[in-house]
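Class, discuss our next protein.
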Amino acid sequence: MSKKSPDDFFSQKLQFSSELLRLRKIILHSGLEETIKWGIPCYCLEKHNVVALCEFKSYFGLWFYQGALLTDERKNLINANEENTKALRQWRMNSMDDIDEQLILSYIHESIENFKIGNIILPERGKEINVPNELQDVLNTRNDVKIQFDSLSTTKKRDFCEFISSAKRLETKQQRIEKIIPMIMNGIGLYDQYKK
């Protein structure tokens, strides 16, 4: 399977195609390197993810990977997942009118400067893994799954646990458990495909 390029992403039928192309043009003026990570255009400074484009059903926008450190005087940035997210912030937009090139570039340049001086929020190390009850039930009843789960890296275990815990409905949690059991049995992490 060949890796998608940014041009492949933008050639898709997207709900906010014109708006995303406009944001792309703005970001490329900043000098960041364009790539695809997690299936979306991501813009990097050396090895650091600085900003990415996102599109959802009712909005599009930017993800600033170290957005929590930005000044954000206009309060454009939100934390979409207070429980699990420390650094990432979203800037949601609804139309072309929401795109302010100079303001966007000011956020990008501030973020770039933060990376250059080493002002970043690092992931927590040694954070306790909270196994959700639904997954624990499987581990208690299926020794083969428990053995494989216990052999995984801490990061993989935490990713699986957070994936299950973040579901609101019991039905969704069960669907997610069914999805991850084959991955656990094969030693595959939830996000391994995006880390290539």
About this structure: The beta strands are 33-37, 40-45, 48-55, 60-64, 77-78, 89-93.
